[in-house]
Amino acid sequence: MSSDATQFDPLAGRATEELPRLLGASLDYPAGTTIDWHAHDVGQLIYAVTGTVSVRAIGRAALLPPTMALWVPAAARHSLEFRGAARMRTLYVRTDVSARLAGECHVLNVTPLLRELVLAIAEEGFETSTPEWNDHVTNLTLTTLQMASRTPLSLPVPADSRLRVMVNRALHDAAEVDSVAQWVESASASRKTVERLFKAETGMAPSVWLRQAKLMHAVALLGDGVPVNAVAHQIGYATPSAFTYRFRSALGMLPSDVSSGRRN
User: Fold this and answer.
1) pTM
2) Between the N and C ends of the chain, which has fewer C-beta atoms within 10 Å?
3) Within the chain, which residues score under 50 in pLDDT?
4) d(Cα 258, Cα 220) in Å, to the nearest integer?
5) Which residues, other chains included, contact 254 with Cβ-Cβ below 8 Å and sequence gap of 6+?
6) Is the distance from CB of 81 to CB of 62 less than 8 angstroms?
7) Are 254 and 246 within 8 A, CB to CB?
8) What are the Cα distances from residue 231, in Å, to 20, 51, 108, 241, 244?
């Protein structure tokens, strides 16, 4: 299923200068929904309370479970795919205010406080609440966004069409890729060419990129409630302890942190 981005755009028909500092929206999507490439004149926080969201933005790809969100600055083109039924609660940040936040896309951890603030702003009627309440919640949300910790959970996407074939396969389901050698062979080029181009376009060796893609996939599985032991097995680790060690080394958190965050 696909959908036109404008059909679901709460900003449609509203002049940017007339928007509040923060505008929230509650949007529910069935599994398989895609929103094609588009951009906004304001910044956006992409967050789903349930479901996993696959996002492409400015040459990068991210996979977001309910414990993480993606900050997208104004004018940055992006597309979305909802892997499962998703309850999206998004924030739009007026351009003059979004300058306080980062100028590039990045994934951030959603704390219980940030989650509740997003839900409050996305509720129908927030815009018409008392000015004092609106200002307090808006100020606290902006400060919380500024202080939110980032997580290295997005990947550069190469432009070369031969590399895109293998990259898209891994982004769809990294667990299906059994080995780096098999994965590299799926490109219509020699291994030496693939490794050279991959390094030039992403700054990473194919093996490093794939390992990170598998961790992204693991985070999505954990966010969907799959047990740690099962996730470790699915993405190719011999033992849960080996998976936990790699996960913590790369992301600075334990797999159980994602699972427990899902339950908060």
Assistant:
1) 0.82
2) N
3) 1, 4-7, 263-264
4) 9
5) 244, 247, 248
6) no
7) no
8) 42, 17, 22, 12, 10
Question: Which amino acid, residue 199?
Answer: K
What the block records as the tokens of 251 is: 């992301």
Please report the pLDDT score of residue 29 as a whole number.
92
Domain 158-263 coded CATH 3.10.20.30 = no
Give pLDDT, residue 33.
92
Structure tokens at 79: 């597309």
Calpha distance 102→110 (Å, rounded): 16
The class (CATH top level) of 2-147 is mainly beta
Which helix (DSSP H) or strand (DSSP E) does residue 2 occupy?
strand 2-3
What is the full DSSP assignment across 84-146? S-EEEEEEEE-HHHHTTS-SS-EEEE--HHHHHHHHHHHSTTSTTS-HHHHHHHHHHHHHHHH
The ranges assigned to domains in the chain are: 2-147, 158-263
**Do residues 147 and 103 make contact, with C-beta atoms less than 8 angstroms apart?**
no
> What was the pLDDT predicted at 6?
39
Among residues 164, 223, 235, the alpha carbon closest in space to that of 197 is found at 164
Find, among 35, 36, 37, 33, the residue nearest to 1 by Cα.
33
List, for residues 119-159, the tens digit of each pLDDT value.
999 886 666 667 888 889 999 999 999 999 888 888 999 99
Cα separation, 234 vs 219, whole angstroms: 12
Note whether 259 and 228 are within 8 A (CB): yes
DSSP 8-state assignment for residue 150: B
